[in-house]
Amino acid sequence: MKHIEIAKSLLVWNTRNLVKSAELKKSELGIYFADQFLVKANGINYDANHDKYFDFLNQFRSTIRSISYDYHDFIADRENVVIPMIAHIIRLDGSLENFEAILILKFDKSDKIVLWHEVYVMTS
Questions:
Q1: How many CA atoms lie within 13 A of 72 on its CB side?
Q2: Long-range contacts of 73-81 (CB under 8 A, 24+ apart)
Q3: Rounded CA gap, 106 and 24, in Å?
Q4: Which of 84, 104, 116, 122 is deepest in the core (most CB within 10 A)?
Q5: What tens digit of pLDDT does each residue of 17-66 get?
Q6: Contacts of 66 (CB under 8 A, 6+ apart)
Q7: CB 107 within 8 A of CB 79
Q8: How many whole angstroms separate alpha carbon 42 and alpha carbon 100?
């Protein structure tokens, strides 16, 4: 399914760009995200657009040396992809953090993400 491929591509993009050493480009957000979208993270909701999300991502990645994922599955219907996974983050100081997570991505008719909904818990 097309949305699974987009989700996989986004997560590869994350591993390359959500690290301090990357040259993050705001223009690349439009490849994946609608102009306006909703981010839900552990029960907190954020109305986002490319400008706000770019600022958030720059803050988020400021202490990250690397980020990688182990996917358990990709489950999809017409509008959504659900990804149970483990996210591994290595901080600049060398410390490792592992997060068990479920990510739900909802897509609009243009195949852009309108919802990034994640629930995660640190396991290490």
A1: 11
A2: 74/4, 74/7, 74/8, 76/1, 76/3, 76/4, 79/3, 79/106, 79/107, 80/3, 80/104, 80/105, 80/106, 80/107, 81/1, 81/3, 81/4, 81/6, 81/7, 81/105, 81/107
A3: 23
A4: 116
A5: 999 999 999 999 999 999 999 999 999 999 999 999 999 999 999 999 99
A6: 15, 19, 88, 89, 90
A7: yes
A8: 12
